[in-house]
Design brief:
Elements (H helix, E strand, L loop, with lengths): L1 E5 L7 E3 L7 E5 L7 E12 L1 E3 L6 E3 L5 E13 L4 E5 L7 E8 L10 E6 L3 E11 L22 E10 L7 E5 L1
Parallel strand pairs: 1-13, 3-13
Antiparallel strand pairs: 1-2, 3-8, 4-7, 4-9, 5-6, 7-11, 9-12, 10-12
Length: 177
């Protein structure tokens, strides 16, 4: 198993083990008892459906066309010593991104990659391209956020921490301390 220790502004990021991952788990091990809400973003190399807002609006194509996208999902609420398995299929991309909103006001060190989140439970496809395959004309798209609920969700940009998940398929745990 591969284990990451990510900390707030007071600590450091360390890595243990040499294997990659099959599932990804995030754990709150903050000694001060602070709770947190976390998000996880992962790469979708060939998807036929893009989720474009927090209300599950989507854009689709039919095979052999496909999109590539970074899918950002949240929120998992973690109290002290609680973990959430945020991704369970074996995935092959090397990097993923995590954001933690921590009740004590601390933040993850080296979190500097922006992703869009919303105040509601969400899954948003971001930084997407395509469709690829049998497309004609312009084949590069951009994600959008639409208002579809009442009250409409609020969207904002956060800085995420890049995780190097390696190149094999073994488990990864990110401990936030």
């Amino acid at each position: 198993m591969r284990k990451w220790m990510s900390s707030s502004v007071l600590g450091a990021v360390t890595l243990a083990s040499t294997h990659a991952f099959a599932w990804v788990e995030i754990c709150n091990i903050k000694a001060n008892g602070a709770d947190m809400y976390v998000t996880y973003a992962y790469y979708e190399p060939n998807t036929t459906t893009l989720v474009t807002d927090a209300c599950s609006s989507s854009s689709s194509v039919s095979p052999p066309q496909y999109y590539t996208a970074w899918r950002n999902t949240g929120w998992w609420h973690l109290t002290k010593n609680q973990c959430a398995r945020v991704y369970t299929p074996a995935i092959s991309n090397r990097y993923a991104y995590v954001y933690a909103q921590i009740s004590d006001g601390s933040s993850l060190l080296n979190a500097n990659v922006p992703f869009t989140v919303t105040n509601a439970v969400f899954g948003l496809d971001q930084y997407w391209n395509g469709p690829f395959g049998s497309c004609s004309g312009e084949c590069v798209g951009q994600s959008a956020t639409g208002d579809c609920a009442s009250p409409a969700p609020s969207y904002y940009s956060v800085n995420t921490l890049q995780l190097d998940q390696g190149s094999n398929n073994s488990n990864l745990t990110l401990d936030i301390e």
